[in-house]
């Protein structure tokens, strides 16, 4: 198949940034180029591999290269295509984003991933992954560019909303659940590999870190998705890691991802600015350049000059074709348009919103509000009447319908609701607030405050974790007029609640709650649903309590500690700890038992937890942390190593079991380049949050 000349690069106003065009070389590759075969992952399907052998043997080098890049700088009907090869029955890839819903056309909009991280609900996240995957397939996609599983190292990161939280274990558990659901219909993509947690300098910043921080903090969740969830694709990050762009970082992509972890799928670049070369990138392990061959148009010449081996090109093609065959892309299932914005998916979005909202404060049992009371309810703030769904970058979703907080509250409380659509009060509205039985203030962030750093409109990282001065003033003004002031916060990640929080009766963190978020807010305020969300990031008292967030420098250093690990290490109390969330009822943690006092390195710690004295039906998120033996290398005070979301009912005892493989307690030993489980006495701590752990027990890892 002859290569076609590429179109003008005025499209997307990117001409000034793109590499110049370069035609294919007419010279045959030098027979003297080294061309050693690359190692293949274990456990491959011999039938598929034999078929791939035949397909590769039948292709010219030009045809092979034609399969290794996208074909359009702009989306076509909402999809980003690659080329197929009709004469060999090789289908094209059709890609769409899908962190909170499918971006190709109107689709169900779920709460953002950070909100879903607050659910701590694997089963729910698997169902959401399946729903998004089904809608993507119905739109004609076969690759879903989700989930985002980057560590939220600092909540000021503009795309924190797209990831589940700050803890690598939680990221891996929920990311694996999403992949398990999505891959019922499409190929899922783990992104962005790796150390991607800054927007404003994301195209060039170099993240400097040692191997221990890399292995213990920034890679475990990716390994989980590769080894356990069998994710089909991985997307590299824009940033550099130790000075080398992630798309051509051989230690990360070739050595760890492909060789060590045995990843059999394909690796793609992030869009436009995610690829920087042809030969070095393919040699390092990049398989597909997206969305167009801005650099891979020189791949033929790179082979000709021995800058990349034919074996590396064949390996890249094999990985694309292997994944296509493994997922049945050569005989796709019929498209089911009824999946798009179905009633079942709307109900799932409502469930996710209900489970994600976190009750941060409830003084004097200000909540729930009595739906049968006669007093008015003032709903204050311009955001109350807005469907605030999140970032307007690549994760943007456009549902056909959405419920605003005001509409959800009106649907539950009816004519009692007095809407004040302003961020300041005048004499008349101040009197309405003072006369109301309760005042609900809706404040927070929008896509104008945080999001992906795209050329237009520019968003990016947050300048501060504080609410705007206008919103802080509005809270103070309403609280001065009405002692039963309830604040509803929308946003992508942690916000500062000092100094205004002591002036209000209750606070709900609603995140960007998706198309059904307003309904969920109304239900929680009325007590129809008990709050059950738990924070997936620690909320600091002050921004200075967290590690510095440098979104200006060309190089930054990442270490072992951030979030709750950083706060614990420094003895700094958070405003609200990781895992925190109140409810309308109480649960007593009655007992913890470990099956064994001593375990070996290859064994599992079995923990049984009893929950009792429940005075209200609802869900509890049981969290298990492990504290390492005293002494030794510098380690986190404790780390999340298990969680379970369980339904509880009044006057019953519920037993919860959580298993912790001892291998998960390993640290990376730089001297031996291996995982090591230190012998000694470990402590299991179980409770409601990282700082509220009433149950403790110990076990010993034998030498």
Topology:
Layout: H1 46-57, H2 61-66, E1 80-81, E2 94-97, H3 113-117, H4 122-138, E3 143-145, H5 168-182, E4 187-193, E5 206-208, H6 211-218, H7 220-227, E6 233-236, E7 240-241, E8 244-245, H8 251-260, E9 266-268, H9 279-284, H10 299-304, H11 310-326, H12 343-356, E10 358-362, E11 377-380, H13 405-413, E12 417-420, H14 427-435, E13 438-444, H15 469-481, E14 485-490, E15 506-509, H16 517-526, E16 555-557, H17 563-570, E17 588-594, E18 598-599, E19 604-612, E20 618-627, E21 639-648, E22 654-661, E23 667-669, E24 674-676, E25 680-687, E26 695-701
Parallel strand pairs: 2-3, 3-4, 4-6, 5-7, 5-16, 6-9, 11-12, 11-13, 13-14, 14-15, 18-26
Antiparallel strand pairs: 1-2, 7-8, 10-15, 17-19, 19-22, 20-21, 20-25, 23-24, 25-26
Structural class: alpha/beta
Using only C-alpha atoms, the radius of gyration works out to 26 Å
Query: What fraction, in percent, of the residue positions are helical?
Result: 10-25%
Q: What is the top-level CATH class of the largest domain?
A: Alpha Beta
What is CATH's topology name of the largest domain? Answer: TIM Barrel
Give the oligomer, counting copies of the same chain as homo and different chains as hetero: single chain
CA distance, first residue to last residue: 62 Å
Count of β-strands: 26
What is the CATH homology-level superfamily of the largest domain? Glycoside hydrolase, family 3, N-terminal domain
């Amino acid at each position: 198949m002859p290569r076609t000349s590429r179109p003008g690069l005025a499209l997307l106003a990117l001409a000034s940034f793109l590499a110049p065009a370069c035609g294919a070389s007419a010279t045959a590759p030098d027979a003297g180029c080294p061309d050693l075969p690359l190692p293949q992952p274990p456990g491959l399907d011999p039938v598929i591999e034999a078929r791939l052998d035949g397909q590769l043997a039948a292709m010219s080098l030009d045809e092979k290269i034609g399969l290794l890049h996208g074909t359009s700088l702009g989306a076509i009907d909402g999809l980003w295509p690659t080329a197929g090869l009709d004469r060999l029955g090789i289908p094209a890839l059709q890609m769409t984003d899908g962190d909170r819903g499918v971006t190709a056309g109107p689709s169900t909009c779920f709460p953002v991933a950070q909100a879903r991280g607050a659910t701590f609900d694997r089963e729910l996240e698997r169902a959401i992954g399946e729903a998004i995957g089904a809608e993507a397939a119905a739109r004609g996609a076969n690759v879903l560019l989700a989930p985002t599983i980057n560590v939220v190292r600092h909540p000021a990161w503009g795309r924190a909303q797209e990831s589940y939280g700050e803890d690598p274990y939680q990221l891996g558990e929920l990311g694996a659940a999403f992949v398990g659901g999505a891959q019922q219909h499409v190929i899922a993509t783990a992104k962005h590999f790796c150390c991607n947690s800054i927007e404003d300098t994301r195209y060039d910043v170099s993240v400097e870190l040692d191997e221990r921080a890399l292995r213990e903090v920034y890679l475990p969740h990716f390994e989980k998705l590769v080894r356990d969830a069998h994710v089909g694709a991985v997307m590299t990050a824009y940033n550099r890691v130790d000075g080398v762009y992630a798309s051509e970082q051989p230690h990360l992509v070739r050595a760890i991802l492909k060789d060590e972890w045995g990843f059999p799928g394909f690796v793609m670049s992030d869009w436009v600015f995610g690829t920087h070369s042809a030969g070095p990138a393919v040699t390092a392990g990049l398989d597909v350049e997206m969305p167009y061959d801005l650099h891979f148009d020189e791949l033929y010449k790179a082979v000709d000059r021995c800058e990349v081996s034919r074996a590396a090109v064949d390996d890249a093609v094999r990985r694309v074709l292997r994944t296509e065959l493994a997922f049945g892309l050569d005989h796709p299932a019929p498209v089911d348009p009824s999946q798009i914005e179905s009633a079942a998916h709307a109900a799932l979005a409502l469930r996710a919103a209900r489970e994600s909202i976190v009750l941060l404060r409830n003084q004097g049992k200000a909540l729930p509000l009595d739906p049968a009371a006669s007093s008015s309810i003032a709903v204050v703030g311009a955001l109350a009447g807005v469907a605030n769904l999140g970032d307007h970058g690549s994760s943007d979703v456009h549902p056909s319908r959405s419920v605003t907080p005001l509409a959800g509250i009106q649907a539950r409380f009816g004519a009692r609701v007095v809407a004040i659509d302003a961020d300041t009060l005048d004499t008349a509205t101040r009197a309405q607030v003072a006369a109301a039985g309760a005042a609900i203030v809706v404040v927070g962030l929008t896509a104008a405050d945080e999001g992906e750093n795209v050329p237009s409109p520019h968003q990016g990282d947050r300048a501060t974790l504080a609410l705007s001065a206008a919103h802080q003033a509005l809270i103070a003004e309403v609280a001065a007029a009405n002692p039963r002031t309830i604040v509803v916060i929308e946003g992508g990640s942690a916000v500062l609640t000092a100094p205004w929080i002591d002036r209000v009766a209750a606070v709900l963190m609603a995140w960007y709650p998706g198309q059904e978020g307003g309904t969920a807010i109304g239900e929680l305020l009325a007590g129809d649903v008990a709050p059950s969300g738990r924070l997936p990031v620690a909320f600091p008292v002050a921004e200075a309590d967290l590690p510095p967030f440098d979104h200006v420098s060309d190089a930054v250093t990442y270490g072992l500690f951030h979030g709750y690990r950083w706060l614990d290490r420094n003895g700094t109390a958070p405003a609200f700890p990781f895992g925190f969330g109140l409810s309308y009822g109480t649960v007593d943690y009655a007992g913890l038992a470990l099956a064994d006092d001593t375990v070996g390195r290859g064994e599992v710690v079995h923990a049984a937890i009893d929950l009792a004295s429940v005075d209200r039906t609802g869900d509890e998120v049981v969290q298990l942390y492990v504290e390492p033996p005293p002494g030794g290398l510098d380690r986190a005070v404790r780390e999340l190593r298990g969680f379970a979301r369980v339904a509880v009912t009044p006057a019953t005892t519920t037993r919860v079991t959580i298993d912790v493989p001892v291998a998960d307690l390993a640290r990376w030993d730089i001297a031996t380049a291996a995982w090591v489980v230190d012998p000694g006495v470990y402590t299991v701590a179980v409770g409601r949050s990282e700082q509220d752990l009433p149950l403790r027990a110990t076990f010993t890892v034998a030498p």
